[in-house]
Amino acid sequence: MKIAIFTDSFRPNNDGVASVTEMIAQELTKRGHSITIICPGETTEIIKQDRYKIIRVISHSINLYRIMRVCFKTPDYLIYFTKVFWV
After folding, report:
1. What is the pLDDT of residue 17?
2. How far lies 81's CA from each of 30, 41, 46, 68, 70, in Å?
3. How many CB atoms are closer than 10 A to CB 41?
């Protein structure tokens, strides 16, 4: 089954959300599922690993809490990610 996990924190962040998201992705991959993780990043990029695929969406840091990032989505992003995810 193809599964997309949307998260507000992922590696290289070292927090609970990032850790649990990675553990879930690893366990689902062991069970034979195809996993794609969509998370914020400094640029939009697709990273293919042996275990799962990571899609980073361009985002901006918040001044009060630098680790937290905000994504501004447009319809173009939604179309792009739908095509990338289902390929």
Report:
1. 86
2. 24, 15, 10, 22, 17
3. 18
Contact predicate 4/36, CB 8 Å: yes
- pLDDT beneath 70, residues of the chain: 63-87
Range of the domain at 12: 2-86
| DSSP assignment letter at 53 | E
pLDDT the model gives residue 81: 64
Q: How many domains does the chain have?
A: 1
User: What distance in Å separates the CA atoms of residue 15 and residue 11, rounded to the nearest whole number?
Assistant: 9
**Beta-strand pair 34-41/53-58:** parallel
Amino acid at 48: K
